Amino acid sequence: MSSLLEKYKEIRQHSEEICGPLQKEDYVVQPVVDVSPPKWHIGHTTWFFETFILKNYAEGYKEYNPDYNYVFNSYYETVGARVVRTDRGNLSRPTVDEVYAYRRYVDEAMHAFLSGPIPAALHPVLTLGLNHEQQHQELLMTDIKYILGNNPLLPAYKTESTHGSNKAHSSNFIPVPGGIYEIGYSGNDFCFDNELGRHKVYLEPYSIAETLVTNGEYLEFINAGGYKNFTYWHAEGWDWVKNNAIQSPMYWHLPDGKWWSYTLQGLVELDINETLNHISFYEAAAYAAWKGKRLPTEFEWEVAATQFEWGSRWEWTESAYLPYPGFTKAPGAIGEYNGKFMVNQKVLRGASEATPAGHSRITYRNFFHPHLRWQYTGIRLAQ
C-alpha cells in the first residue's frame, strides 16, 4: 500500500471519527454564517477529491451526482456556482445517509486511484487535499462545539475528557534582541502558499510572555470593568461590544453569580487555571491594553516560538493578513485557496487542541476577522 493511500485512509477516517458522537439531527444545524453543518463538511471534503483529482485524472471516473458540485463547492469561483454560505443549514437534502454514500463512492475510487502509479506532478494537489481535510477537521470540532453550545440544553459532545489546556502558568517574559530575522517557510515538506516568500524583517528589541493568559487572569479584567470602559478598546471593537451586549468570552455563563463554561463535556464550573480561549481579537487587544502590554506581531511570534510552548490555542497577533514579498497565486481554482482572503483579517499563529496531529508549523498563518471567536483562540502578551 502506498504511503499516500495510507495517509488518505487515516485522514478520511479521522473526519468520520470526529462525527461519531453526533446524532443525525446535529449534522444539519447552522446557527450562524461562520459555522457550517457537519454534513456539509463531510460532503465538501469529499467533493474536493472528486473535483480536483478524480474528475481530472482518474480514467473512466463517473461523477457521483452533478448537483453536488453546486451543493458542496465552498468558494471556488473557477469551479462554478454554489449554494450561498448562509444557506448550508437549509440543505435537508441530500440526507446524511446520502452524503455518507457519496463519501464511500469517492473513497472507493480514490483507493483504486492511489493504488496505481501517481504522476509526480499530481503529488502537490493530493497533499493539498489531505491538508485541506485536516483544516476541516479542526473546523468540524469547533463547529460542533458551537452547534451544541448554542443548544438550550447545552448537551455534551463526549462525556470523557478530550484535550486539556490546564498548564503551569508563568509570569515571565522572554527577551528577544532586536535585529534582522528571516520569516516564512523554508524546507521541502508541505506548506500553504501564504507561508512562502521567505524574507527578512527588522525587529526592535521586545519581550514575549512565556505562557498564555488564563481564565483567572481574564476574569480580573472583567471584574475591573473591562467590558464597560471604552478606554481599552478599538473604536470598532467598542461598537462590537455595545451592539452585541458582549460581557465575557464565548461559552461563559453566570447563573446565580457563579461563572460556568460550556465545554465538549457540557457545562462545567469555570477553571480559573485553564488557558483562556474563545475570544475575539477585539477582546485580546483590549485585555492587552488593560495590562499595559500589547499583542505580538506575527513576526515577533515566529521568531520567539522556539522558546515557549505553543499549540493549545490559536494566538491572536497584531498583524494584518497580508501577502509576503513575491507571493503569487497558483493558476486555476487552487489559486483561490488563500490569496483572495488577504483583506480585513488578522493573523493567528500556533494551533489549537482541535488541530489534527502533524498539521501545525511555526510558520503556519491562520486568519480570521477580528470579531470571530468560535475557534480556540487565546492571548499571548508582548511588550
List keywords for this structure.
alpha+beta, paralog of FGE (formylglycine-generating enzyme), four-stranded mixed sheet, 9 helices, 11 strands, 12% strand, globular
Structural class: alpha+beta
Distance separating the two termini: 51 Å
Radius of gyration: 22 Å
**How many domains?**
2
Shape: globular
Proportion of residues in extended strands: 5-15%
Proportion of helical residues: 25-40%
CATH architecture of the largest domain: Alpha-Beta Complex
Order of helices and strands: HHHHHEEEEHHEEEHHEEEE
Task: Let me know the average pLDDT.
Answer: 95
Query: Which assembly state applies to the chains in this document?
Result: single chain
Assigned CATH class of the largest domain:
Alpha Beta
Question: Order of strands in the sheet with the most strands?
Answer: 10-9-8-11
Number of helices: 9
- Record field, number of beta strands: 11
Largest sheet: 4 strands, mixed
Instruction: List low-pLDDT spans.
Output: none
